[in-house]
Design brief:
The chain has 1 helix and no strands. By secondary structure, it is mostly helical.
Length: 53
Amino acid sequence: MMGLSIGHIILFAIIILIVFGTSKLKNFGKDVGGAVKDFKQAVKEDNKNNEIK
Protein backbone atom coordinates (compact mmCIF):
# COMPACT_ATOMS: atom_id res chain seq x y z
CA MET A 1 0.00 0.00 0.00
CA MET A 2 1.16 3.50 -0.78
CA GLY A 3 -1.17 5.38 1.57
CA LEU A 4 -0.42 6.73 5.02
CA SER A 5 -1.83 4.86 7.95
CA ILE A 6 -2.61 6.42 11.32
CA GLY A 7 0.64 4.93 12.65
CA HIS A 8 2.67 6.76 10.01
CA ILE A 9 0.95 10.03 10.80
CA ILE A 10 1.54 9.67 14.55
CA LEU A 11 5.21 8.82 13.99
CA PHE A 12 5.61 11.81 11.67
CA ALA A 13 3.98 14.12 14.27
CA ILE A 14 6.31 12.86 17.01
CA ILE A 15 9.37 13.44 14.84
CA ILE A 16 8.19 16.98 14.00
CA LEU A 17 7.69 17.72 17.73
CA ILE A 18 11.17 16.47 18.53
CA VAL A 19 12.84 18.43 15.73
CA PHE A 20 11.02 21.75 16.12
CA GLY A 21 9.80 21.70 19.71
CA THR A 22 6.41 22.85 20.93
CA SER A 23 7.25 26.54 21.30
CA LYS A 24 8.27 26.95 17.65
CA LEU A 25 5.16 25.06 16.50
CA LYS A 26 2.96 27.24 18.70
CA ASN A 27 4.48 30.40 17.23
CA PHE A 28 4.09 28.98 13.72
CA GLY A 29 0.43 28.25 14.37
CA LYS A 30 -0.09 31.76 15.71
CA ASP A 31 1.57 33.29 12.64
CA VAL A 32 -0.50 31.20 10.23
CA GLY A 33 -3.70 32.05 12.10
CA GLY A 34 -2.89 35.76 11.96
CA ALA A 35 -2.17 35.56 8.24
CA VAL A 36 -5.48 33.81 7.56
CA LYS A 37 -7.34 36.40 9.65
CA ASP A 38 -5.68 39.27 7.77
CA PHE A 39 -6.44 37.63 4.42
CA LYS A 40 -10.13 37.22 5.29
CA GLN A 41 -10.31 40.84 6.40
CA ALA A 42 -8.69 42.02 3.16
CA VAL A 43 -11.15 39.97 1.08
CA LYS A 44 -14.10 41.47 2.99
CA GLU A 45 -12.78 44.99 2.45
CA ASP A 46 -12.20 44.31 -1.25
CA ASN A 47 -15.74 42.96 -1.66
CA LYS A 48 -17.12 45.99 0.18
CA ASN A 49 -15.16 48.36 -2.10
CA ASN A 50 -16.36 46.53 -5.21
CA GLU A 51 -20.02 46.80 -4.12
CA ILE A 52 -19.72 50.57 -3.74
CA LYS A 53 -18.38 51.12 -7.28
